[in-house]
Design goal:
159 residues; alpha+beta; 7-stranded mixed sheet; 29% strand; globular; DNA-binding
DNA sequence: GCCAACGTTGGC
DNA sequence: GCCAACGTTGGC
């Protein structure tokens, strides 16, 4: 099966691409996702080796900071079982886990952030989920063309 | 099963 | 801090 391409959002104040780079093995479980559509992407469609655009939301400016890759199949999200976790969900049990996580591995930090404003201004990215108004999903599926385009934009100083 | 109220996301 | 978008909850 062909590689899939993803865009994953994170608030850099909470967890940035640089934080990922500094993790042991440069790998971190992507847990705490509590949206069914995003969960289904992880559970049904993600596989090791898939390419990830790492997007910084609630940042100045918001934009794509670099690249990561999927480093595991989906597995039960442990934070759902932990009453002390912000992500605790009593409806998720070890017998029947409701939520899953995947591991994500650092690949590359761009030389610059590719800001959302540039993504919006680029006609080739008109149907990129993140430039469409009201898209709040923390994990979006993107095309290989989107991915390559953004990678190229990162290598130029403007647009 | 409908739908209003509410909470969250996230750009600006 | 504001507000639009939209998912979830809960009363009925």
């Amino acid at each position: 099966m062909a590689k899939n391409y993803w865009l994953m959002k994170s608030e850099p104040d909470v967890f940035s691409l640089e934080d990922l780079r500094q993790r042991p093995n440069q790998t971190e479980p992507w847990d705490g996702v509590r949206n069914y559509q995003a969960r289904n992407f992880m559970r049904d469609d993600m596989k090791p080796g898939d390419c990830v655009l790492f997007y910084h939301s609630n940042a100045k400016p918001p934009g794509v900071a670099g690249l990561a890759e999927i480093a595991s199949e989906a597995f039960p999200d442990e934070t759902a079982f932990d009453p002390d976790s912000d992500y605790y969900d009593p409806k998720s049990t070890r017998e029947e886990p409701r939520w899953v996580a995947v591991k994500v591995r650092f690949v590359e930090a761009f030389g610059r952030i590719v800001p959302l404003a540039e993504l919006k201004a680029e006609p080739a990215l008109a149907d990129l989920p993140i430039v469409r108004k009201g898209n709040r999903l923390s994990i979006c599926s993107v095309t290989k063309a989107h991915y390559e385009k953004i990678r190229k934009m990162a290598k130029h100083s403007e647009g």
